[in-house]
Amino acid sequence: MEIETLLVYAVGASGLFASRAFVPAFMSALFMRYGSDFPIIGNMGLFEVTGAEPTWFTSDIAMTTMGGLSTMGMLSASDGQYIESTIQNASVMDMFPAGLVATVVYFVNSSRNSVMQVLQESDEGDELGIQGILSWMDDLWSTFGVLVLFLFPFLILLCSGALIGGFFLLARRAAKVEERSKVKCGGCDEQVSQSACECPKCHNVSSTVKGLGFLGSSSEETVTDLVAHKLNLVEHKRCPVCATRLTEKSPKQSCAECGYSLFSEHPTGMAYSDYIGGRLGGVMFVSFLLGLVPVLGLILGIIYFRIQLVGPYRMYIPLHKSFFIKWILRLFFFLLIGLQIIPVIGGIVLPVMVLLNYRSYRESFEEGLA
Description:
Layout: H1 3-19, H2 22-34, H3 55-58, H4 60-72, H5 77-87, H6 92-122, H7 130-151, H8 153-180, E1 182-184, E2 191-193, E3 210-212, E4 218-222, H9 226-235, E5 253-254, E6 261-262, H10 266-277, H11 280-291, H12 296-314, H13 319-337, H14 346-369
Antiparallel strand pairs: 1-2, 3-4, 5-6
Helix pairs in contact: 1-6, 1-7, 1-8, 2-4, 2-7, 6-8, 7-8, 10-14, 11-12, 11-14, 12-14, 13-14
């Protein structure tokens, strides 16, 4: 294979590996070993098995390992040792494109993670479903992009270039927006969030505090009720003192910037729980109206009550507890969803789902306060 063609394949593959590391590797090995047996595609002569394929990459052990890692999305220490040992059998020409891909993948993945971090910080529980959709798109891109790379390498090269440029620009823009939203503290010139009640360094009290927007970023609205604002900060997983983003999935944690201990007193945690619980009646009424609309109303209703009632509790519940609650409720809801298409009766399905979610997540949250 000519070096120019090799470079096209190598750089084109970088965009695929940046989304899902093991899926494109597994698909590449699959096409190398069994490509000629695929219907239609095999007749094109692109994947003829010549015996020159790198056996360390297309062996049973390698393909089984990559197939398993594709489903888990993780690499263990033993897998790393296996890969390290098999790479020693590769030639210099095998290592060059691999090194090029690895370098480009690193930079693309860094930019991609910066963009995804903004979404995760704004909607940690993926109540809007945006992160889930992007995850499916990643899977499709990584799986079928490899096939397109073999058929139309320059097309994938252009797509990867657009992907790299897009992630880079979005990551830079997100960083600039976050930095521009900060203001200088009047006491020590520290850059602080406009939504902060105090400076995390000198604890100077801000005279003008800005509210929060829909996804937790500072808005232009000036806060008049500091008590409600602090509860709103906690709801968006921000420190109620300095507005720094909190990282742990636990009600008991300390702010990394100012050291404030969240929910250190049980009444404080209960005040937050009651603040979220005060929405229950309104959410159930809106859910009933949405439940009267088949399918679309159900989808919108689920998103609505997850944002209003589930997310504010779930972000402070440890992952293993949250996972258990989610799947128990999900199995029960499969039975309820079938009733949603029945006129009038369908209207009670969403309120029932709302009440069950609310009770389950609130009880789990309050257990963590004890």
